[in-house]
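Continuing the batch. This is chain 6 of the set; chains 1 through 5 are on the previous pages. Same settings as before, nothing changed between runs. Recording input and output for traceability.
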Amino acid sequence: MSDDSFIREVNEELRTDNAKALWDRYGAYVVAIAIALVVGTGAWVAWDYWTQSRANTSGDQFSQALDLAKEGKTDEALAVLQTLEAEGYGSYPQLARLRRATVLAQQDKPAEAIAEFDAVVADSSVPEPVRDMARLRAGYLLVDHGSYADVSSRVEALTAETNALRHSAREALGLSAWKEGRAADALTLFEQIASDVGAPRNARERATLMAELIRGSGTGS
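Output for chain 6:
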């Protein structure tokens, strides 16, 4: 046997002995870690499937409610939405609350719809953007079913320059002011919308039309 072969065999024996020693010392930990990885992966897959399944079910229910409402089957839509509020997953219960209030408005029940929107606003567990949308929806209903003060109490806070809903909030206030004979206030609000380059084009067009109408009537000065 050559010296090189002897050295290789010795090195191989050393590696084998070292590996055996390492396994004897840490083998149980390696097995435990491997089992934990398998169990953890299985648990994650199961949890992901469960959450996706719940989300898909809630999404299907919400779509069903929308379809029923479009078909005029408002009672059936309300029943589905009520179930979704109680059993839905993720953001769907909150969306169901907003949609239920909208369906009530479609049923010509503005007082009930406004109360539902106000309940969403008062619920601190609901994310602020959803509460802001509820404020706006209540404000629009109150244009026809309340006073300027009622509208203002819901949407005034949304008219700030940094608020994404400011154009719609100003429109609701402007319409309410115009209805209540406060032409100058209405003109100011519609001009703010019309001159805001960040406002959607259709909102600017409506605001421009209303501003021209108020000026033409001679009541906006």
